[in-house]
């Protein structure tokens, strides 16, 4: 091991060029989120780098993921386009950063792959009542018996 010279470690600061305006994040609205249209009846709620999606159907709202960072913002975004309730909640997977706010939506049918259901079931991320086996990237309705 080399002997210490007692000199302080010098930190090199790198300078970067500024980002062009076309790649800067889009501004969020006064509610702290941005609502972006995704097709005829679909929407994406975005705050920072966190997002969730929902589709307004004739029977209610289908919500995909409920990140805790969007709690309150998802509800406001849905209320801004419809007065319908969330009837279905789809888990993309069981990580708390995707489903940590599912308890804020009481009553919807929860849909997940069996692996997401097995990993869920904790107070902050309750799982759906049942799930079917299937391809790892496929979601199945919990009550689908076909």
What is this entry, summarized?
By secondary structure, this protein is an alpha/beta fold. The protein is built from three helices and six strands.
Structural class: alpha/beta
Rg calc? 21 Å
Instruction: Please tell me what the overall shape is.
Output: elongated
**Second rung of CATH, namely the architecture of one domain:** 4-Layer Sandwich
Order of helices and strands: EEEEHEHEH
CATH third-tier fold name of one domain: Metallo-beta-lactamase, Chain A
CATH class wording of one domain: Alpha Beta
Largest sheet: 6 strands, mixed
The tally of beta strands, per DSSP, is 6
Residue share in β-strands? 15-25%
How far is the N terminus from the C terminus? 68 Å
CATH homologous superfamily annotation of one domain = Ribonuclease Z/Hydroxyacylglutathione hydrolase-like
Low-confidence stretches: 135-146
In spatial order, strands of the major sheet run: 1-2-3-4-5-6
The level of helicity is: 10-25%
Structure annotation, total helices: 3
The average pLDDT value, as a whole number, equals 79
């Amino acid at each position: 091991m080399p002997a210490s010279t007692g000199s302080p470690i010098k930190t090199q600061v790198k300078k970067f060029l500024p980002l062009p305006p076309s790649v800067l994040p889009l501004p969020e609205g006064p509610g702290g989120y941005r609502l972006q249209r995704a097709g005829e009846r679909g929407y994406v709620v975005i705050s920072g780098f966190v997002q969730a999606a929902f589709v307004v159907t004739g029977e209610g709202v289908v919500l995909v993921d409920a990140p805790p960072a969007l709690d309150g913002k998802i509800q406001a975004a849905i209320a801004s386009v419809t007065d319908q309730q969330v009837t279905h909640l789809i888990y993309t997977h069981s990580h708390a950063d995707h489903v940590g706010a599912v308890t804020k939506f009481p009553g919807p049918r929860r849909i997940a792959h069996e692996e997401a259901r097995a990993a869920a079931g904790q107070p902050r991320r309750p799982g759906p009542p049942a799930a079917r086996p299937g391809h790892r990237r496929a979601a199945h309705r919990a009550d689908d018996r076909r």
